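Re: the request from the purification team.
They wanted to know what the chain is likely to look like in 3D before they choose a buffer screen. I agreed to run a prediction and write the result into the notebook, where they can find it.
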Amino acid sequence: MSRQRIAELQRFEILGALMTLSEGRRLQPATEQALISRGPQFVRDSHIGFVVVDRKRATNDLTTFAIRALSLRRIDGDGQFDLYTPSDNVR
């Protein structure tokens, strides 16, 4: 991914947080809580229908944050990938 595209995506705070966590870095607790509270609106605005998590690559912190911030519920999975959808109350 180009640096320009990364910068564009980081303008969306939740995406920036997901990138931070995917790099193995941590979020400040206050930042994490603020983003989790804004997550449902992000899901609606972004029209998120499904999220795929690669369990072999995603850290526990990344997965936990995504589940909490995007109000995800697991609907299927196999040995490596899990498929989530936002809870009905946030779509």
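For the purification team: The chain is about 50% helix and 20% strand.
Please add any questions underneath this entry.
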